[in-house]
Amino acid sequence: MFSGIVEKTVPVTRILQKKGNWKIYLDLGPLVKQLNLGHSVAVNGTCLTVVGKKGKIASFEVIQETLKRTNLGLLKVGDIVNVERSLLLGSRLEGHLVQGHIDGTGKIIALEKVPGSTKIWVKTSNNLARMMINKGSVALDGISLTIVDVQRNSFSVCLIPHTLMTTTLMSAAIGMIVNIEVDIIGKWIERLVRDAVGDGGHSKSLKQLAFQAKTY
Fold it and tell me: Which of 82, 87, 90, 179 has the fewest CB neighbours in a 10 Å radius?
């Protein structure tokens, strides 16, 4: 579990491809000393496991499912990624609860300069957009952000200067592909409602739906 507060941006130093899977190597600098084999790290919001360490470099295996669902398959040596170590119980939750399980990707379709911030519009699938609400939370490349606008297949977020300076979104450009993880609460609500209205075409009562929510 993560918070969506990026700790550091780091470069990809090496990529190995074997049997369809990738192994990526990141220069984590001093941060590597605080990691052991088996620890979880969010890389562009994707929960990956440390499988190797040597000096400042940590390596991570990326399977086909992850490559298909995220933007990690677009990485090249020299690219910069966001990283965040997993949360410790008892730590402050500065962003929102982020699982590191990417729901899909989106494409940046517009950048708007507004007073004190930059608004980014992202196009995504209807399935993801319908689980978003105005002022709700979303993680883009592992960055916890607040949703400003939601449309049928797009949404917007506003970035303060600090976020632009400390994350990969400093290089945000039209056409850039970003990882999206919607708020876990939205996923549960969508699942419960879908199950409720999809029961042979007959909607369940609110009382039945409430009982079903308790049993999940």
Answer: 90
